[in-house]
Amino acid sequence: xxxxxxxxxxxxxxxxxxxxxxxxxxxxxxxxxxxxxxAAQVPEPTAMHVATVAADGRPSARLVLLKGIEQQRFxxxxxxxxxxxxxxxxNPFVALTFFWPExxxxxxxxxxxxxxxAEISDRYFASRPYQxxxxxxxxxxxxxxxxxxxxITRAAEYGLKFLTEVPRPPHWGGYAVxxxxxxxxxxxxxxxHDRVQYVWSNQVWQISRLAP
Length: 212
Prior knowledge:
Elements: H1 26-39, E1 47-53, E2 59-65, E3 68-70, E4 73-79, H2 83-90, E5 93-100, E6 105-115, H3 118-127, H4 130-138, H5 148-161, E7 172-186, E8 194-201, E9 204-210
Helix pairs in contact: 4-5
């Protein structure tokens, strides 16, 4: 290799974190950190790593955008026929990860995903740009296609079909993740990072500090 990547490292020192500093409710704590990431103009502050598990037990991961926190759940939207959609149909448990390196912070979330109500998906879909709505119809997400021309042609065909109003495809909509475990990670010097974990147990959030 042209560079020794094993030697790449950074010492974190911006902030500290303790259970005493955190909100009793992890969703409030998350909102606080998300607001700070947005205020700091972190690139793509709502981008989250979504990990699912296939029927053969193998994990699969990708980045998607968080689109809301509703009723104490993390909401994102996708094609239900996509690889992630098929995996969620077989195993609804997911892991989400947010990483804001500019703030030396990470949030890890584990929980169960379920489809949101159709009217919620309809409302969000209607708020999307026209071309994005056409793309939801045109793209057979995660399936092999012959070339890019095929995709452009399909988009043009749906553009002729839906000149102004584009209805939500039946195969497209939202998932809401109900968290069962949330961890907040704040980078610290000498790799002695601060980790605060919330676990949902007996209808209350149990909070603890974890070793780095």
